[in-house]
């Protein structure tokens, strides 16, 4: 049996930009991507702690060290700059493997820098 489980999470990142005039996606600082074991093009769920919105999109790699969390296209309407979001990626794996799997969870600071 295969089940879907949490793979990666950026917990309480801060939205730095919302760009309505760009094709849909979320741009994320490459340092955050590396720390959270996420890759460009990966599907993610966005949870906005400020307004309760939940939606899916895909990742675009942002400038390393920039702290960028930018919602693009229609997703830009679901956030405001300064909102706190949780960015979640899931994976599918065997039930037995899932019992011992440990997801990668990153808690960025107020500037979206990786806390080591």
Walk me through this protein's architecture.
The chain contains two helices and eight strands. 11% of the residues lie in helices and 47% in strands. The model has no long low-confidence stretch (mean pLDDT 97). It has 116 residues and is mostly beta strands. It has helices spanning 30-36, 95-100; strands at residues 2-14, 17-19, 25-29, 43-48, 54-62, 69-72, 84-94, 104-106. The protein has a single domain (2-106), classed as Barwin-like endoglucanases (Beta Barrel), CATH 2.40.40.20. Strands 2-6-3-5-4-7-1-8 form an eight-stranded mixed sheet. It is globular.
Largest sheet: 8 strands, mixed
| Count of discrete structural domains | 1
Strand neighbour order, sheet with most strands: 2-6-3-5-4-7-1-8
User: What is the SS-derived class?
Assistant: mainly beta
Per DSSP E runs of 2 or more residues, the count of β-strands stands at 8
Low-confidence residue ranges = none
Text of the CATH class: Mainly Beta
Shape: globular
As a percent range, the share of strand residues is: over 45%
Head-to-tail CA distance between termini:
36 Å
CATH names the topology as: Barwin-like endoglucanases
Average pLDDT over all residues: 97
Radius of gyration: 14 Å
Note the run of SSEs as H and E: EEEHEEEEHE
CATH architecture level-2 label: Beta Barrel
Given the structure, what is the number of helices? Answer: 2
Helix content: 10-25%
